[in-house]
Amino acid sequence: MNVVTSFPNKSETKAPVVPSFERILALLPRPVLVVQSDGVVIYANACSEVLLGAVVGSDVGQLFADFPLGLASMPGVLPTVVVSRGGESFDAAFAVLGEGHFLIDLRPFVDGSATKSPNDLDELTGLAKRNALLSQLSIALNVGSPSVAIHCLDLDRFKMVNDTLGHAVGDLLLKKVADRLRAACRKGDIVARLGGDEFVVLQRDTKEEGAADTLAARIVDLVGRTYVINGHTINIGASVGVAIGTNPVQARDLLRNGDLALYEAKKAGRGRYRVFESGMDALLLKRREMEIDLRRALALKQFKLNYQPFFNVSTNKVDGFEALLRWEHPIKGTIPPLSFVSLAEENGLIVKIGEWVIRTACIEAMSWPSEMVVAVNVSPLQFKADTLLETVSSALQRSGLPAHRLEIEITEGALLDDTENVIQTLNALRDLGVKISMDDFGTGYSSLSYLQKFPFNKIKIDRSFVAGNDADSEAILRSIASLGTSLGMAITAEGVETAEQLARIRGERCTHVQGYLTGRPMGKDQIPAFLEQIV
Amino acid sequence: MTDGMYRLVYYSRNHIASDEAMFASNVEEILAKSRVNNQRDGITGALLFNTGCFAQVLEGPLDKIEAAFERIQQDERHGDVSLLALDRIHQRSFPNWAMGFIGASDIHAKRFAAIGSSSGFDASRLSGDEIHSLLKELAIEEEAAA
């Protein structure tokens, strides 16, 4: 066992001469101040004098704009950013010296953040990351500067760039976006990338009236301008959500408000900015609740199909029923599709709900007299999901319903985007033997080219032309009907409510009618009685 | 694929205040800055301007052209940039980079004549190529619209 019993004799080597601390501080290339609790400077190193004009006796509140004096008297206070009268930003750290004295150590504030370490920086763009942003935001909010603003930004069509030109070009694009954001901001503002194409700008000084709007508009303009990368011309857009922080607000809450405003900007049509308003969270909260309810509804089987009969006007018989979706909410009662389908389309739930509708309609139609058709509405989103064909064929197979007894109703909306793919799916469905009809014709674009692109089995004329008993409605009804018949399509007049309307329709070459007059939507259990009564 | 010489052509809406002195000082600043940058980057071409618009042809290596265009896009003295062409070219149409007033305003033509002659601006070079003459026409149209 070795026991150290002696130490090398230190006195043998000459102790280095340490300059006085006074001199070290004087040579320190950044300002150091000692301040009394009333803000009077009792020590200022040479650098403070040069950079801040600070001398013993100065009032620290006069040296900086918006100096948070209260902060200096709080032990262990967070570092914060102060701006000198000369406009230079410093990262200030405070230490308590005792006897009511405080040390203020000021490091020059570099490119938005002095406290950032390489880990805080986004590798691709060199921008701050979420944590750095949050801490800077908390500081800015705590300093009590009159107001700061958060700009949450999302690139429109970025995914398409990645998908079509590759990730290498996508990355170059993100770098250029970062550059443009830096160019749009002032010194002291912080630009952060939270991941993907999500950016946030922390705007520090929004005292000036409309300063936040100005920056948001500038971001939308600059980021939305054409890019040229590796010889490719790239056009994307920027949507921005702005939240203005007035005390007291937590950093996370402000960011969330910015996100809510961004959501509104995107909903309003993208390529624009929206400033957060207090109503937005309530509205979104309601939608969120409804979304949770809607997901649960699917699991709890709260959906139900009602059926409305359609009549063949030449045979005076029921040809089939259109399946109509209802949500039987345990508290809110029956909710019609108009109130939840747009939400379901937005969050993609419509695909699952739509699958349920097709499967259920096929099974329930099996109990009807043979040859009766069930018509099912399909959302444009279901075409985009690429699973429609599979869903339909498996629903037919499992239920045993012959394909010609299923009719898929689509609206023009389904044909708006990606028309080629949709037509391909429609052709495949027709090959299965399924009937395809065009719903609500006359309300959208009513483009005749759609009728030419796909041989629909049926056109359903919107109820508004049936209800209107003026000459114009009648002329439109007649033209659509004769156009459809000459193309070999069946024509359904929707929303027939009176005997007079029915008489009129018989004269206009419509082949089918559907409406309250000939039968209201009913539950599946009422169908047998209904069919019995009309025979 | 990205080697060789490229040509980028655009025109944009002028956002500089219509105030005479402001306009002139901005134009001079653009000339001074662009001259340095473009000489360094081996870019030649022509920048046409009037109170309505800027219209520019840039010729040079692709990466330099892209960097120059990015600087241009970040400049808030103009907006609504319409990119007319980005193609490979076999030879330059412009021997240097020059800038000149183009438009119907006699006052401005006179005021900015010095800039044109000092930078070697030669309007006749703008009629050799279809896209160049189109650019010239567009620029004159934009002046009238402003």
Can you walk me through this structure?
The complex is a heterodimer of chains A (535) and B (146). Chain A is an alpha/beta fold and 535 residues long. Chain A has three domains: 21-108, PAS domain (Beta-Lactamase, 2-Layer Sandwich), CATH 3.30.450; 118-276, Alpha-Beta Plaits; 289-534, TIM Barrel (Alpha-Beta Barrel). Chain A has 21 helices and 22 strands. In chain A, the strands form four sheets. Chain A has an eight-stranded mixed barrel with strand order 14-15-17-18-19-20-21-22. In chain A, strands 2-1-6-5-4-3 form a six-stranded antiparallel sheet. In chain A, a hairpin with a 4-residue loop joins strand 14 and strand 15 (317-329). In chain A, helix 7 packs antiparallel against helix 8 (211-223). Chain A is elongated, with a radius of gyration of 35 Å. Chain B is α+β, with helices and mostly antiparallel strands and 146 residues long. Chain B has one domain: Alpha-Beta Plaits (2-Layer Sandwich), CATH 3.30.70. Helix content of chain B is 43%, strand content 29%. Chain B is built from five helices and five strands. Chain B has helices at residues 20-41, 62-73, 106-111, 113-119, 130-145; strands at 5-14, 44-49, 53-61, 78-89, 97-101. Chain B has a five-stranded mixed sheet with strand order 4-1-3-2-5, sandwiched between helices. In chain B, strand 2 (44-49) and strand 3 form a beta hairpin. Chain B starts with a strand and ends with a helix. The mean pLDDT of chain B is 85. The interface between A and B is medium-sized, with 15 and 16 residues.
